Each structure stands twice: as C-alpha cells, then as structure tokens.
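Page 47, continued from p. 46.
Same chain as before, 429 aa.
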Amino acid sequence: MTRTLIRARLLTFLREPQSGDDTASFRYIEDGALLIEGGMIRDMGEFAQMSAPDVAVIDHRPHLVMPGFIDTHLHFPQTQVIASWAAELLDWLNDYTFPEETRYGDPALCAAMASAFLDRLADHGTTTPVAYASVHATSAEALFAEALRRDMRLITGKVMMDRNAPESLRDTAQSGYDDTKALIARWHGKGRLAYAITPRFAITSTPDQMAAAQALAQEHPECYIQTHLSENHAEIALSCQLYPDAVDYTDIYARYGLLGPKSLLGHAIHLSNRETGVLADAGAKPVFCPTSNLFLGSGLFDDAKLRAAGLVTAIATDIGGGTSYSMLQTLAEGYKVLQLQRQRLHPLRAFHWITRGNAVALGLEHCIGTLDAGTEADFVVLNARATPATAQRMDRATTLTEELFALQVMGDDRAVVQTYIAGKPQKAG
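Result:
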C-alpha cells in the first residue's frame, strides 16, 4: 500500500479553545508531516522525525494544513438558486426553491449535479457535508453514489414533505417512509456514508408523516435526523397553527420523538427559554447558518445563550439560502452576527468550530475533524497569501492567530490550495 508524507505547517485541535491564549487546546507544528496510507492518517509529527527514503513527500510549505471543513447543513438541489432575490424565507421557498427542486426527479440531472455539487465543496475545502436531497429518492441515490465513488464522508437523506408544496414535490406519509427505509438499507454504513431521516420542517409534513418519521427514527437509531427549526417568525406562526396542540415549535418535534443527540436543527434562532431547555435535555444540535440568516433577514443566532444552556452548536453554509460554499466566508459572517450581540468569536474557536467542533456535533470526532493518527485523511491546504489583498495583509501579520483571522475574514476558495479526501487530492491543477 502506497505511503505518502504531506509536509507543511500543521494545525489541529485537541479540544475547544477557551480563550485566545489557550495554547493547550491545539497542536501547531511549524515543519510537520502527516503519514498517509490507505486513506488514513497513520502518524503526525515533526517532519525531521518522520521522513524516510522509501516514502514519497508532497511538500506544501509554507502553507497551512488543517483538518477538512465540515458543513453540517446545506441543500444539494439548491445550488442553482443561490443569490435569488426574495422578501423572506417562505417567499424564497415558494418562488425559487420548490420550482427548482421539481427538476430532481430526473436521474441524469441528479447525477450531473451531484458531481458538480461535490466539486464545489472540495474547491472550498469542505470534506464532509450534511446535505438535504430533494423529495425524490433519485436525488439521494445520486448524491450517495457520487460520494461513494470519491470515498467521501457524507450524511444525506431525501426530504419527506406531503403538504404545502407543489404536487410534484409531495410524497405521502407511506411513500416517504418506504423510500427512506429503502435508502437506509441501500446506503447507510456503506463506505463512509450515513443516512439522515429528513422531514423538511413541520410546515411541509402532516401529523401522519411526522409519525412515519418517528417510526423511522425508532427503527433506525443509528441514523441522523435533520430538519429546520425557528428560522423565521412567519414560519414559526404557521407551524404552530398547523400543530395547535403543541406548546411551541420545538414541542412539535418533541412530541414525535425527533429530538435527540443525533438531531441536527437548522437555524434555531427564535427560541424561548423553555425550548432551549428542551433541546439541551435532549442533546439536540442547533446549527448556525449565518450567511443564510442574514440574506433572508431571518434573525441573529444567539450562540452564547445556547452554549450557556449546555448545548453543542454546529455551524454551516445552508446553501442555497446561504450565499457561499465557503466555510471561511461562513465564519466571517458568523463573526459579524455574534459581534452584533456582543459575543466574540476568536479565530481559534472559529477554526475549531468548522473542524473538530462540527465533528463533535456529529459524534464523529474519532473519525474526522482532527489530524490525529488513526483518523480519516481528510484535510485542507490553506494559503493566507492567495490574493494580493491577503498577501498585503499578511505582510503585517506576526502570529498564527493573526493568520487565522485573516483567513476567517478575507478567505474564500482562492485560499484553498488543495483539498484531500481519504488522502486523495480533489482540486484539479
């Protein structure tokens, strides 16, 4: 089996940084190496101690190697409606998203777009996506197949939606259950693939379908659950109108057993103290989607409140309500959202969040999110001098923290020199 040494400056996190001077939370090696074999990181350390004449060396100096980025909430069928003007969430869904998603019943389109979708993610340094497919089983099939071909870690599922959508985008409680059951049997646990049971949100699922999702979750506790929660005031009001017996929006999901440690809840902006407590008791994971929240005017994610309640929060692009595939740009906008609430996002915590932090939210920190020996060889090579503007900024940077913050605020796909998935480079050229 071929062995390769990746030589570069290395940065990996051991735990979440508690402050800007928490040097015990990460490991940084100025001239480091990763030993890659069979799609895994076999060792990490100083290059001088790891080099050997029989091992090929790929030298990425002076660039910075970090774990690959993990995007915990995005929509595969929405890549061609990014940057579509709308007043707010429900208008955007009805005017752009639903018409676009009707196209994904075509297997040929799904296959072509799955390849393009995963290419764009790799271009931006993302190595693990958690994605919504469309209502069509064909869309999930295509995305799983393409990820398997690349030996990529992927979590996805077909959305379940049987009301308040165009007829061509509606399944039924029974067909949604049957299609999901078949997809789980075919794909979950194959290669590095995992299934997410995906009732889109309460507005588009009848009580019968929510009960079907509950049955699936009980039958397949190994699967994730993903849905949307409290993104927009109009959405909250309609959800509660459709489920009048529920105490609030969060209670809808709680009543159907859809809250637990493997539940990923996109947005979670407008939560009462009661709802926050319910999520914390369940161990559910709210997902911060800053570019989407700003673009659709949905509101400001209160990360400090959720964390104070003991919740583990994730962060994501939310393509295509989100405006960039880049987790670096996601951090830039997340920084601003938190600044508006007098919450500070230090660059050390920011880069922990999109690597090990999101891995912790998924319960996968033993597999991805670090450069530790024995983990999967998903990593990104970053150049903070990729553009004239960032090079000019870096001429005055003297610390790792300053470099990270420049990448966080000014970085995008141009800063991504290469993305490795299972030890294989993904970017052409």
